[in-house]
Amino acid sequence: MTADAHIPWRRSLLVRLLLTSVAIAVLSVGATAWLAVQLTARAIQEERGQVLSDDSDILRRLSGYAATHADWDRVRSMVRTLARTMDRRIALTTTDGRVIADSAAAGTALPARASATVDPLRIDTYTEPGAQLSDIDPRAAGPYLLPADERAQVRKLATDRLVCMRRNGSDGSTRQIPSGRTVVTADDGEADVPLECADGRLSTPTPTESKALSNLTVLMSPCLDGQPPTAPSFGRLHLDLIPGAAPLARAADYSPRPADNEQNQTCIDNARRTQLDPYVAPRADLYLGSRGRRQAGFDLSSANKTKIIGVSGLVLAATVTLTAVVAVRLVRPLRALTAAARQPPERHARVAVTTKDETGFLAAAFNELTARREQLEAQRKAMVSDIAHELRTPLTNIRGWLEVTRDGLLDPDPDLFATLHDEALQLQHIIDDLQDLAAIDAGTLRLHSEPLRADELVAQAVSAHRSRAAAADVRLLTHTDTGLWIDADPVRMRQVLANLVSNALRHTPAHGTVTLTARHSGEFVVLAVEDTGDGIAPDDLPHVFERFWRAEKSRSRRTGGSGLGLSIVRQFVEAHGGTVMAHNAPGAGAVFTIRLPRGTEPDGPPR
Questions:
Q1: What are the distances in angstroms from CA 578 to CA 396, 416, 449, 568?
Q2: Which residues, 6+ apart, have CB-to-CB distance to 13 below 8 Å?
Q3: 249 and 285 both lie in a single domain
Q4: Which of 89, 238, 277, 447 could form an S-S bond across to 257 if both were Cys, CB 3.0 to 4.6 Å?
């Protein structure tokens, strides 16, 4: 039976992808057609509003040109650029009707009436953002335009004031007005400056500004109640008379300009217009119109309907075709994965990786999983065989001695009981090791850490194996640094050192030496067990911490050991956040090195 026989067609991935693509295509085509009609109709309604917005932008840009130029001599290129960008006809004429610039061909009649008047000294405050109450374009700097050296000087004063404000608990930012002066404004919208920062230097006019303000004073003096410029009613010169300067940051020594009444305000405004007049372009009339290429409306004629239907059908066909191709390429490796997964487990079936996309990565991951499963199965079989082998030997010995005693061939005596006791201890040792490994694998191992002195831990391990070492004619030596502490479970760490010392004693010949050391290395405590045996073959070093692995491939019990001790050592050390490694000593013998994080001495600072 094939894999497809269990999948109804309505649940097939291929069918679902095709149906999804068809639904998406139909919805997208229908939504696009509906939006086209709706948006086109809305565009017709909004076109007038857009035209008004474009016209306002044209007026703003031309007013900016007039504010920064004394004549209209070089405005033609700007008019042509704006006409192309806005798709509008733009024409400028003088107040007496002479054409200054026109984006239309020569001889084209002007619209019936002007759309607006371009006059930077009397602008519309509603269409010109930033215009002052006097209706003067803030970009008209005129005689207040600062040279480079004065700009740099004022910029430095503004920066110093801002630093002072921040140092005194205030904050703000700097900006440059059209004249080139840098001003400081507070973030909260207020213009107050702390008294510590109000040194008056930033609010003092530069030579250029002083000259322009003096000229302005002369222009204002005839209408300020007939008083001379130095009269008390006028006071000192003020920076907020500069176009675009208001509002400025106010210092304690700064007061508003003398607009005491409506008459004075009118006097000031007229004087400012008189002063700026030579620096701005003359008043001009602005004519705006269509370039003759705009087509409004949306024609849903029979031809257009046919086009929409044809394009929609083409989109639908292309969508279905592409989805079918992609779906087939996607489903093919998935079917291969399904077939491989249904193979008997013992076959460890794999699939071919034919692509480098997500399905290819899935196939590669499936093959890796199969390889790991095969490896784990082999390890499981080997582990079962090893456990049976390790348990069979002591059980066989115990059974043999008991049968001999039961048959009366041997009388029970202390030596027999001692032999049976040793075999039972060996059996219990193997079972305890297996129980520890099972707890580690299950994640149920619990450590009860406490501060331990490394030298005492080494001394306990030596004391526990001194009699066995003496029986094997092997010397036990220690070299430990004092004051080394680790945070560890004392029972588990003694078991770790016991396993390493036992392993070293088994592989050290008579008259040999087993050395235990404890030293510090940066933030770690290093424990090492070194013997003078034959060492470990280079090919065997990567396997010494594997379960049931022993260098003696015949698995003879001449040297003892179950092959679990070193595996338990690695698991316990890693559970304490440390590492263990094995290598051969430069002379002869093996060295097992443990690195553990340094601990804290009880009721004391880190040592």
A1: 39, 43, 14, 13
A2: 327, 330, 331, 334
A3: no
A4: 238
Looking at residue 364, its pLDDT comes to: 81
Least confident of 187-196, 228-237, 548-557, 578-587: 228-237
Of the two residues 21 and 94, the one the predictor is more confident about is 94
**Strand-pair partners of 551:** none
Q: Which two tokens stand for residue 443?
A: 């994640």
Query: 537, 500 in Cβ contact below 8 A?
Result: no
DSSP strands (E only) in 469-578: 475-480, 485-488, 513-521, 524-531
Q: Return left, alpha or beta for 314; rule: phi > 0 is left, psi -120 to 50 is alpha, else beta.
A: alpha
Domain that holds residue 181: 142-279
Q: Are residues 424 and 560 in the same domain?
A: no
Whether 88 shows a pLDDT value over 80: the answer reads: yes
When pLDDT is cut at 50, 70 and 90, the band that residue 517 belongs to is: very high
For residues 140 and 279, is the Cβ–Cβ distance under 8 A? yes
Residues 178-235 have pLDDT tens digits of 888 888 877 665 456 777 787 778 888 889 988 988 888 888 877 765 554 443 333 3
How would you class 301 by CB atoms within 10 Å of its CB: exposed for 0-12, middle for 13-18, buried for 19 or more? exposed
Q: How distant is the alpha carbon of residue 370 from its chain centre?
A: 35
pLDDT at 132 over 60: no
Q: Domain total for the chain?
A: 4
What does the alpha-carbon distance between residue 423 and residue 79 come to, in Å, rounded to a whole number? 108
Residue 214 burial (CB count, 10 A):
12
Say how many C-beta atoms besides its own lie within 10 A of residue 172's C-beta.
Answer: 22
**Does 241 share its domain with 116?**
no
Residues paired with 488 in a beta bridge: 450
What are 450's strand-pairing partners? 488
- CA 436 to each of CA 253, 444, 519, 561: distance values in angstroms, whole numbers, following the listed order: 85, 10, 28, 16
Same domain, 415 and 453: no
